[in-house]
Structure formats: C-alpha cells, structure tokens
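Q: I have 155 residues here and want to know how they pack in 3D. Can you give me a structure?
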Amino acid sequence: MRIVLQRVKEARVDVEGRTAGRIGRGLCLLVGVEKGDGEADAEALARKAVGLRVFPDDEGRMNRSLADVGGEVLAVSQFTLAGSVRKGRRPSFDGAEEPARAAELFRYFVGVLEALGVTVETGVFQALMDVHILNDGPVTFVLESRRDAPVRSEG
C-alpha cells in the first residue's frame, strides 16, 4: 500500500461537478492499493498517518500529529500510485490490486481512521475526480507498507 500524505489547510474532491468530500485543516491522503496488500498494511498506514508529527507546535517545529491538532482527513483512492514507470514511456498497472479487493481495503483503511477518532471524508471509488488541495507548507510525504520498501516518512 502506498500513500501520498499532504498536510492541507483545506481540501475537497468533486465528482461530476458535485462535492463528494470536503475538509478543513488536516491531511489529504491519496491511497494506492497494490497486489498482496492486506488489512495489516491498511491498519499500519492508518495509524502512521494519524500519529505522524507533521503539524507545527508553538515554536513552528513539526511536533504535533493529526490527533494532536484535531485535524480531518480527505482520503482519495488513487490506483495510479500502484503503477510503475520504470520501463518505457507508458505506465504499467500490473501491480495494482483488482478493483473489488482494492475497494474493500480502502474501506477498511477509512474504517481504521474513523476508529482512531478521525473525521474522514472520501472521494468516490473508481470515479474521475477533481481533487482540490490547498497544501500547507508544502508538506508532503510518501508512506509505504511493503517490508522491502523504505519508509520515506521518517528521517
């Protein structure tokens, strides 16, 4: 599972001219589900996102988490995150999970966030979406659940 996490002042997702989800201060999470991902991946990344200290404290240091600041989440399923551009000029999506399983894991991921006390808005699975992000900072991290992938959000 791969997530692009962006700290936002506000974000919304529109589908067919209608707003499907909208948040104020918080995190926009673009979520890609890969073949072989499971509930443990979804749970680990949900906990990581909620606990990651990416919000400023009173001294301006990134020392507060989403939970600390009472922020919200806009979670958007994005299968292209499971794509590869290593060979040639056309992306390969062989690593992306099948839609039914990906939808199931995405819903599970959202459920874990909600169980952690976070207000979550979402896009519409498999829809063409317009995602409006007012990135705060900008602050952007890539989180990956694969054991063989480096955890780019630390360090």
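Q: Anything worth noting?
A: The two ends are 20 Å apart (CA to CA). The longest helix spans residues 99-115.
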